[in-house]
Amino acid sequence: MTEEKRDNERVPVPEQVTGEVTTSHPMTILDISELGAQIETTVMLPPEGLHDFRIALGSRSVVVKGRIVHCQIGELREGAVVYRSGVEFVELAPHAQIAIVAFVDAQRAARVTPLIVDAEITEDGV
Q: How far apart are CA 93 and CA 60, in angstroms?
């Protein structure tokens, strides 16, 4: 007789029971706003699908739920298809919203603005 290794007995299921498995895939964020982001992945994300996204925002990391608005082939890179998708953030937790807003604001503030020099031209060449 073999010893049972489980703490609880498993029982057979008389009918088919189905579910879904969630896997993680790397992504690159191309741009981001308070409401969503444009990302690149090596897997197609079907439009209208809901996914959890772990986003590293500098020194902070948040997990947000997002809805895929569109997904299209972005380019072929090193023999692999790269998909570009638009993500709309949904049901943002307050701490995630604060972190995203702070990150986006910091990126806007860090933009390099063109340097305008105030000068004038004189007719005598001096």
A: 14
**Contact between 78 and 106 (Cβ < 8 Å):** no
Q: Over the stretch 50-94, which tens digit does the pLDDT of each residue have?
A: 999 999 998 889 999 999 999 999 888 888 899 999 999 999 999
CA end-to-end distance (rounded Å), the chain = 105
Residue 110: strand, helix, or coil:
helix
The sign one gets for the Cα dihedral 40, 44, 45, 47 is: positive
Angle at the Cα of 93 (from 26 to 86), degrees rounded to 5? Answer: 40
Report d(CA 33, CA 107) in Å as an integer. Answer: 10
What is the pTM (predicted TM-score) of this model? 0.72
